[in-house]
Amino acid sequence: MKKIEAIIKPFRLDDVKEKLTTLGINGMTVSEVKGFGRQKGHQEIYRGAEYQVDFVSKVKVEVVVEDSKVESALKTIIGVAATGKIGDGKIFVIPVESAVRIRTGENGESAL
Amino acid sequence: MKKIEAIIKPFRLDDVKEKLTTLGINGMTVSEVKGFGRQKGHQEIYRGAEYQVDFVSKVKVEVVVEDSKVESALKTIIGVAATGKIGDGKIFVIPVESAVRIRTGENGESAL
Amino acid sequence: MKKIEAIIKPFRLDDVKEKLTTLGINGMTVSEVKGFGRQKGHQEIYRGAEYQVDFVSKVKVEVVVEDSKVESALKTIIGVAATGKIGDGKIFVIPVESAVRIRTGENGESAL
Amino acid sequence: MKLFLNLGIWLALPASLAFAGDDPITLESNRAAIELVQSHADYLWTLIAAGLVFFMQAGFALVEAGFTRAKNSINIMMKNLMDFSIGSIVFFAVGFGLMFGVSKGGFIGTTGFFLSDYTPGGDPWVLAFWMFQAVFCATAATIVSGAMAERTKFIGYIFYSIGLSAIIYPIFGGWAWGSLFNGSGWLEGLGFIDFAGSTVVHSVGGWAALAGAIVLGPRIGKYTKDGKIRPIPGHNIPLAALGVFILWLGWFGFNPGSTTAANKDIAMIFVNTNLAAAAGSILAMITSWVKFGKPEISMSLNGALAGLVAITSPCATVSPMSSIIIGAIAGVIVVFSVLFFEKIRVDDPVGAVSVHGVCGAWGTLAAGIFNMGGTSASIIGVQLIGIAACFAWTFPLAFILFKLIDKTIGLRVSKEEEMTGLDQTEHGGNAYPDFEVSSYIQG
Amino acid sequence: MKLFLNLGIWLALPASLAFAGDDPITLESNRAAIELVQSHADYLWTLIAAGLVFFMQAGFALVEAGFTRAKNSINIMMKNLMDFSIGSIVFFAVGFGLMFGVSKGGFIGTTGFFLSDYTPGGDPWVLAFWMFQAVFCATAATIVSGAMAERTKFIGYIFYSIGLSAIIYPIFGGWAWGSLFNGSGWLEGLGFIDFAGSTVVHSVGGWAALAGAIVLGPRIGKYTKDGKIRPIPGHNIPLAALGVFILWLGWFGFNPGSTTAANKDIAMIFVNTNLAAAAGSILAMITSWVKFGKPEISMSLNGALAGLVAITSPCATVSPMSSIIIGAIAGVIVVFSVLFFEKIRVDDPVGAVSVHGVCGAWGTLAAGIFNMGGTSASIIGVQLIGIAACFAWTFPLAFILFKLIDKTIGLRVSKEEEMTGLDQTEHGGNAYPDFEVSSYIQG
Amino acid sequence: MKLFLNLGIWLALPASLAFAGDDPITLESNRAAIELVQSHADYLWTLIAAGLVFFMQAGFALVEAGFTRAKNSINIMMKNLMDFSIGSIVFFAVGFGLMFGVSKGGFIGTTGFFLSDYTPGGDPWVLAFWMFQAVFCATAATIVSGAMAERTKFIGYIFYSIGLSAIIYPIFGGWAWGSLFNGSGWLEGLGFIDFAGSTVVHSVGGWAALAGAIVLGPRIGKYTKDGKIRPIPGHNIPLAALGVFILWLGWFGFNPGSTTAANKDIAMIFVNTNLAAAAGSILAMITSWVKFGKPEISMSLNGALAGLVAITSPCATVSPMSSIIIGAIAGVIVVFSVLFFEKIRVDDPVGAVSVHGVCGAWGTLAAGIFNMGGTSASIIGVQLIGIAACFAWTFPLAFILFKLIDKTIGLRVSKEEEMTGLDQTEHGGNAYPDFEVSSYIQG
Ligand SMILES: Nc1ncnc2c1ncn2[C@@H]1O[C@H](COP(=O)(O)OP(=O)(O)O)[C@@H](O)[C@H]1O
Ligand SMILES: Nc1ncnc2c1ncn2[C@@H]1O[C@H](COP(=O)(O)OP(=O)(O)O)[C@@H](O)[C@H]1O
Ligand SMILES: Nc1ncnc2c1ncn2[C@@H]1O[C@H](COP(=O)(O)OP(=O)(O)O)[C@@H](O)[C@H]1O
Asked: Which of D132, D121, D53 is nearest to D99 (CA)?
């Protein structure tokens, strides 16, 4: 199993979620993050002082899938999350040794 | 070392935390996440339009432990976080190659 | 590639970010987390009842780097995030199997 | 507007003047004109004061919302909006008649329902007077909302609100204030002093709140399995503080407006109201500081309200110096009272019972003790009778009402609903959709 | 202050008194003194009412901010601050003259620009009257802000705001109210009843809002590709509710204050205003409950406003019972109207068109139907003429104005800017920097 | 209420009337009755205005909280609650006597402590007057809170607050306004014009704020190691904007109420107040637009306040057109002043020094320049003397007071406490427990 961590633009979330579901991925976990990278944030003014806000608000989507689904999941996410503009985000794939469904105690892929 | 990532219902947090402490686990990191899965969210109405809120608010508990403690930690979390209802959450186990305590620079298990 | 997860004190963030940039690390992802550990939180009073707030607010910095940069990144973070006080935080190193830049589909280190 | 500006001017001038052309000016016509102008001032003040008291609804809503969790904010706003709206209609249809109609033996009014005392072209005073009384009724009703916050079924709350505005408040009110209009109450007959309603409005609300909180039981998570008190922090303290400032402002209509006349009395009433509130908040702060080691805000805010409630009854009959003492004592009482009710497991998220019930009783007693005209056992005795009568009437009746609702349509939401939050389950809404909101204290 | 307190006292006493020493007191001097005191009361009431109406600006700002997303809150506050500020200056320079100046054929005023009707030492009534009228003008202007929220270019909005305050509102206003001062409007000539401005203020604002919303088009994400309606939840419901309470309070100045005289009429106007608001919120709640299965708050809040708007025109000429009916009907209308406009893809985030435009028209019609003095086909006919005239004048003109702005300086921000939020792109700010804020509905 | 309604009516009618039965109506009794009715109107207006000024406390609290970080909101609400509460008591006990008591050589009052000028049954005017003056004193006190926000020890702040309300404000106030009651000040003796207190209230507050900000030093993180200015954004701009609307409303009591009489003067004062505020916010917006490239909200909000502060002194003695000019200039001044103080490292989170100190001085000067009665070198000279006297008295004294507090109980919290936030360290609380709040700017 792998955990796919995708850092994307917030307003792409709906589509990413939708498309992943069509792959039979039944669950995911989402959180709000602040991103720092090539996309350089923006200027703000407050009481006359300008200042640079480096962080851009992004959404982190975490989805754990069986190895067989990794490829398709990646493709899908890239497909819908890409706008072609700097700041579209990254996807990281991380190994997962085991997964458990708390409700049932089920272990392994059936837990997803 | 492993990182245990448990996605649970917010109001189970206190108990999970308490029980883990009794295992001699001295620390953990918690964050608010939005969960998507079998538990299907709820309807909301705003100005007459109904809409589906897919995400359920969950809490992610991250705890890094030496390998020997993984089993017991898993059991404990399942024990207290399970309510038997859909949406109880998942636990993922992820390998950790090293851990450092920033304050002292200590490395490895003593850093936990 | 590795993912470095550093849990630090919020007000150290600016410096950590700055220093990492000097290492030629172009991106990172930051999120607000609640930390539980040796640093024991604080007492609050509300309407006459005292209660213990166990969690301390921390910031989680996630940065994925090529293996060669892990050492220097760790050193840097420790260097700037350490205040010598309990609660300075931890750093965990987690393996990353692949990274993709959504915008271009680039894969591997060039995606960072 | 045209139509009326003319008419306005017409009325604005003494009636007699309207035909000044023909009519000779006489001493008597001037005197009549003077009285008319004075009555215009009385109308003005009574209605402006009513407006200020209306605004207290916003204050109550903010205090309650601020002192409770984010997930119940919509529900709280709805309750406050509805008990004023429904209360207005109910008091128009039923309450006013029971309170100020021609009285059966000093116990219950029997005329003036649906504002029937007003006939087009007739004396409009009843309208101004009704307006002022209606906002008072709504105040009594809304006090209860806070004590029942975060766990009450919306529909159940609405039925309670009707019951209080239609029956519980007006009938008791008639006992003390009926003779302000067509009524005549047994309590005022004894010489009971309650100028602006520490008892009539606040204790009635406070004791009903007590009944409600008891019937409901505490919120999930308020007490741990091992019986320890678990504070459930309010989600927006700045809003709560704004609410208290608004209430304080509203009280400048509540107390001085109770003259329902533009006269010089209002000066002292105004000053007393302000000094008591100030003393209340200071003493509550000091008390919290001494007891908890820090100047705690929710207690300090409650202290200001405690002082205001306490001075409501005596505001017109005690000296400024006495007002400071009365408010200060209220500020101390409220802290201990809040702790007391918490200890006996009456879960009152905003302290309504302590602020309005307990300090209302204290203020009513204080009106007897500090009376400028001098006091006596009999004066104090009558005050005590009034305080007791209020509790004896309100608490059991409200208790029965809540039990009735509980057994029929239901008074409390399910465990699931309470944990999810009433905004979502009762109103299908989310008060703060753009923010990540969560409260871990859910039992 | 010294200087003036003396002068104050001097003026406070009947002029004649100032020389009481020499002057003998006569019947006539007393009568003059009485009239002076009455006029002081008139000034007081008119100006206090103006203050209350001013406060409605805060109410509008909160309702609009609460019903929209966090990322546009600064922009909304700026718009509300500026249309009052700019409106005040523009109405001072131009609007007042066009509305109340000596009229050309009942269509347009021609004198009194820059408050030239006031000369130091002269009768200051024009100042009190101007103040009251200025806050009315600002109300009409600010109504539009809500319907255009979350996508309008700030500079474009400012130009609209000038156009409405300088021309659209004053000219129509003069038709109905000109004779309140130096003017004389053709509409009032027909006997059109619009006591406090359901049509003159609210419908003008509402129809301009409709034009604005149409020219702008819906917000990104309001309708899905497949044309389904996508709600965009407001980010702070407690603030929105506070806004409604403030508006309700302000209406106690808006309607009763329209007598611009301290007389007994204000009692009934006050009561009617309150009862209509109450009925409106109750019926809107019930309607939402029946239609959506839950008592929805934004509709209930809109219902209170709908009742207030509807009673604005008839408040002085209908009975309290009729007021309840008028408000109740408005409460039902507003729900269906909001749904209707949403269906036809007019994206009005706060429901301004339904509340002010539609219910303003309903209230104006109701003033004819429920008229205490009895009604008739001709009375109702005149009301309909007024309603129609308002739409025929306001909508096309506002539409042209918005189109003009759109073609020149631009009316709508870019897709990028809208998605990022106007706070950042238009004002370089962040309304809630300490909170993690995000809205996923961005198209 | 009964008791008093009767008494109310009794007093509401001219005393003579009370025995109308016996007493014949005469020209003189009518004249007396007229004067009584006028005095009732004076009481009404003075007290309603006092209520509006009281409400400004809420406005100041919201502006300060909105312009600072979430972690200090409770502390800010406590400071604002307490400086009004403590100020009321202190001004009752000490301040009023020093300000309005029989004066020693025009420098300090010596009678009327503890409101001893009022004796039961005596003339209650002193009570109405005290109330109005008390809210003014509290305004001066609360201005300082904003400039010292986010780093001041609560106990230290309380001692400052006592010092200002008991001594600094009243003594200076007596110099300019003493003769409004029993006093007689040297400054008013020279003919100093400060109708409603640009100098007496606002500059006193502003200069004390300057002293406080200097003694405290800037907040951690306000300036980077390399000395660059680091903005610390306010956490809740909608609340700050609401605060400004409330302050604007309150000013309609502050300025027109300073007649302490219901007369026709209030019309022009009201209009001038509004126009100056409008001009101030517009010009501040334009200035920020030109200087920073975007219309910045905090400056625009400050601009409205700057206009209000500036017109406070001249509001009764200049024309509406002059008021626009005065407000507009204030709107420009405030922007540059804020930047200036920031540059010289006076860290004033809300701009209190610029708004109240600097623009207060400007307004006082403007009262001389734009005086309707014509101006002269001597008039302007006296204004300058007043401005100078205010600074010379307030700044050093406040500076010493703050230093004293600093050396004894301590004025500033520790670095740790400041970084954690005063809500937690000073009050053991959390203003927004259901939200994830954080501010990264912590040095
Ligand atoms: N090395 C990294 N480690 C973790 N997150 C990263 C890293 N680099 C970028 N990110 C995340 O990806 C987001 C997008 O990256 P950015 O460089 O701005 O644009 P792009 O995705 O087009 O390269 C950043 O905002 C950040 O959240
Ligand atoms: N494949 C997954 N990857 C990551 N998180 C998941 C995944 N599946 C479920 N989750 C998380 O677990 C939570 C609970 O899962 P859900 O399917 O709703 O109920 P259950 O835990 O009973 O199966 C979800 O809300 C989501 O946060
Ligand atoms: N075993 C753990 N797993 C995950 N996070 C941890 C763990 N132990 C500590 N942390 C995180 O590190 C933070 C600091 O740890 P703490 O023990 O308080 O101080 P120190 O870093 O000095 O040892 C905690 O607040 C928590 O967020």
From this structure: D132
Residue contact C48–D291, C-beta within 8 A: yes
In this prediction the pTM is 0.95
10 Å CB burial of residue B91 (0-12, 13-18, 19+) is: buried
Is residue C63 in contact with ligand 1, taking CB distance under 6 Å?
yes
What one-character-per-residue DSSP string does E134-186 give? HHHHHHHHHHHHHHTTTTB-HHHHHHHHHHIIIIIHHHHHHHHHGGGTT---H
Q: Would you state the pLDDT for residue D441?
A: 53
- What average pLDDT does the segment B62-81 reach? 95
Angstrom distance (rounded) from CA B104 to CA C86: 9
**Is residue C11 less than 8 Å (CB to CB) from chain F?**
yes
Q: Reduced to 3 states, what is the DSSP secondary structure of residue F395?
A: helix
Angle among Cα E217, E222, E225 to the nearest 5 degrees reads: 95
Using one digit for the tens of pLDDT, what is the confidence trace for F190-244?
999 999 999 999 999 999 999 999 999 999 999 988 889 999 999 999 999 999 9
Amino acid at D404: L
Residue ranges, chain F, pLDDT below 70 = 1-22, 439-443
**Angle value at C-alpha C99, between C98 and C104, nearest 5 degrees:** 135
3 state SS for C14-82: HHHHHHHHHCCCCCEEEEEEEEECCCCCEEEEECCEEEEECCEEEEEEEEEECHHHHHHHHHHHHHHHC
Question: What is the distance of C-alpha D315 from the center of its chain?
Answer: 15
ipTM over 0.85? The verdict is yes
* CB atoms A48 and F342 under 8 Å: yes
Q: Per the structure block, which two tokens stand in for E354?
A: 């339904």
- Are F34 and E50 inside 8 Å of each other by CB? no
Using a CB-CB distance cutoff of 8 angstroms, which residues of chain D are in contact with residue B53? 430
CA distance D59 to D245: 8
Name the residue at shortest CA distance from atom 27 of ligand 2.
B35
- Cross-chain residue pair B31–C36, CB shorter than 8 Å: no
Contacts of C30 in chain A (CB under 8 A): 33-36, 55
Residues on D contacting C at a C-beta cutoff of 8 Å: 229-234, 288, 291-294, 296, 298-299, 335, 338-339, 342, 351
Q: Is the pLDDT of residue E351 over 50?
A: yes
- CA neighbor of D300 nearest in space, from F350, E385, F202, C47: C47
Pocket test of ligand 2: the residue of A28, A61, A63, A92 to mutate, having most ligand atoms within 8 Å of its CB, is A28
Nearest to D75 by CA among D158, D166, D162: D158
State pLDDT tens for residues C7-61: 999 888 988 999 999 998 989 999 989 999 988 888 888 988 888 888 888 999 9
Runs of H (alpha helix) within F217-255: 237-254
CA–CA separation, C97 vs B10, rounded Å?
31
The answer to whether the Cβ–Cβ distance between D428 and B14 falls below 8 Å is no
- In the reported structure, the alpha carbon of residue F132 is separated from the centroid of ligand 3 by a whole-number distance in angstroms of 57
> Where do we find the tokens 């702040």?
F157
**Amino acid D14: pLDDT:** 40
Amino acid identity of residue D182, one-letter, is N
Tokens 């309707």: give the residue: F372
Best residue in B8, B9, B11 to probe D by mutation, most D CBs within 10 Å?
B11
Instruction: Give the DSSP H/E element, type plus range, for residue D322.
Output: helix D320-343
CA D334 to chain centre: 17
